[in-house]
Amino acid sequence: MAKRILVIDESSLFREFLKQKLEEYGFEIEVAVNGLDGWSKLRADPPDLVVMDYYLSRISSLELLQKKADDKNVAGVPVIMASARIDRDKIIQVARYNVRKFFTKPIKIDALLNTVAELLGVKLDLDNTPSIIEAHFNDEILFIEVAQGLNREKIELLRYKIKELLELYEVKTPKVLLMMSSIEVTSQDSLKLATLIQNIVEYSGARPAHIKILTNSDYVQRYIENSDDFAEVEVTNSLETAMDGLLGRKAGSYMDSESRTVQQEFLTASAPKKDSGETINMKFEGERTQDFHLNDLGSNIKLAVVDDDFVIQELIKTAFSDTEFQVSTYDNGAEFLADYANRNYDLVFLDLMMPEMNGFQVLEEVNSRGGEKPPIIVLSALSKRETVIDALKYGVKSYIIKPLKPEWIRKKATEVLKLNF
Fold it and tell me: Which of 120, 148, 183 marks a domain boundary?
């Protein structure tokens, strides 16, 4: 007999998300729209587990938990609680009411599913394929970035993230850029690829002609060409070409030809139209335990920091101060290139705007020399609006927007180095 779960949450999107996701794993789900509704359904037909938000109307969560504790028929039902805002006092308040786990929204779905499985004594078969999927809006374009691999759980999760973003930004018919340039897709991924594209088309509401896929994969190109449903989706390995198609004009028209910067209308991320925060988290709790530890690489890793700002140089050195990495700093591109051939760097942090020789000139020179090139992370000053579009054409692996934070630096370095070792 299927285990029964009662979900009490005032967000219709979150209720729908949990209901469909948990039903996919064979659970029987009942939903309640507020505290009073939740108490009525809990008492009328006791479930095996309750998943509820801390902030409820009609009856508060604490009132509901007290009523539950006073009713011997449901007192023993375990509870998972979630809240967009969490503090020690809340946890202490609910701990005595058989609340087994307290999650912060947006919840990491694998952590929730693993907790549900543990409390109900069932086994769930989760897809553990390493994958990063991120989605955000900019200028009414929905950017979806997929890295490392295709994960079934995250692809299914993406449909709810898309719906949430459409509601928050009040966009009815977006244009979509799916960026998959850092992963190789094969025929073994055909089912996941089909689900990914179908979810984007169905849940975004975008016309196939307004969806562009940025990839180096020949398989993705062939798949789209042979698909009647997705025939109008454009596949390209050029970010500039993809942006031209989405914007309806040359991406270069967003650029100041003298300073090679992008006008503010393009790079400034639009703010949500609604005040409510995001509830769908595309990251997995399990990714913490699968972390790639930089220290495991030993002392032979060589990093270069090419930036005329001494503070940036010191910040990046500090970010790796607990490793044995060799970090070399250069004030401009000319100094770096003079040393480049002799150093065999494993990773380069490159500023785009520098005196004597800027980052674009460095990228051109590195590419012209041929041979194996180190992965490059571009440092892009938000205040100057340097064009990420232009930099990515040179094959850079990633970018970080200034001002920098040590945790961002390490995160990007980890992502890039993990793919190269």
Answer: 120
The count of other CB atoms within 10 Å of the CB of residue 173 is 11
Q: Which of 95, 120, 145 is the last residue of a domain?
A: 120
- Report yes or no: 376 and 348 within 8 Å, Cβ to Cβ: yes
Q: Write out the residue range of the structural domain in which residue 171 sits.
A: 132-281
Domain count, the chain: 3
Two tokens, residue 279: 């509830």
How far CA 263 is from CA of 95, 179, 266, in Å, comes to 52, 22, 6
Q: Which H or E element spans position 391?
A: helix 388-392
pLDDT tens figures, 185-231: 888 999 999 999 999 999 999 988 899 998 888 899 999 999 888 88
| Full-model pTM | 0.59
Whether residue 401 lies inside any domain: the answer is yes
pLDDT digits (tens, 9 = 90+) for 309-334: 988 899 899 888 888 899 999 999 99
User: What DSSP element (H or E) covers 220?
Assistant: helix 218-225
Cβ–Cβ < 8 Å for 61, 81: yes
Nearest Cα neighbor of 324 from 291, 294, 293 is 294
Q: Is residue 125 part of a domain?
A: no
